[in-house]
Amino acid sequence: MSENIRRTNGKSATIGCDAANCSYHGESDSCTAEHIKVDGKRARSTGETCCTTFRPKNG
After folding, report:
1. Backbone φ and ψ of 39, nearest 5°
2. Could you tell me which InterPro entries the record lists for this protein (predicted)?
3. pLDDT for 1-58, tens place per residue?
4. Whether the Cβ atoms of residue 46 and residue 39 lie closer than 8 Å to each other
5. Higher pLDDT, 59 or 37
6. Whole-number Å distance between alpha carbons of 53 and 34
7. What is the pTM of this model?
8. CA end-to-end span of the chain, whole Å?
């Protein structure tokens, strides 16, 4: 299984990632984190959300 495809209840999903400076940013602009958390309970657009899984790349 590719590292950027996660399976939950028999379903798979690829999570896109545009944060090139995140340590979880993978090939083809995908997220390689085991789990993700996105905040923005009252968000009405992507700009009002925040990925709290983000970790800066070392180096």
Report:
1. -100, 155
2. DUF1540 (IPR011437)
3. 344 555 566 666 789 999 999 999 999 999 999 889 999 999 999 899 999 999 999 8
4. no
5. 37
6. 10
7. 0.69
8. 29
With H, G, I as helix, E, B as strand and everything else as coil, classify residue 51: strand
Buried b (16+ CB within 10 A) or exposed e, 7-46: eeeeeeeebebebeebebbbeeebbbbeeeeeeeeeeeee
Output the CA angle 33-38-44, nearest 5 degrees: 145
Pairs from 15-24 (Cβ < 8 Å, separation ≥ 24): 19/51, 19/54, 21/56, 21/57, 22/51, 22/54, 22/55, 22/56, 22/57, 23/55, 23/56, 23/57, 23/58, 24/53, 24/54, 24/55
The tokens for 1 are 């299984």
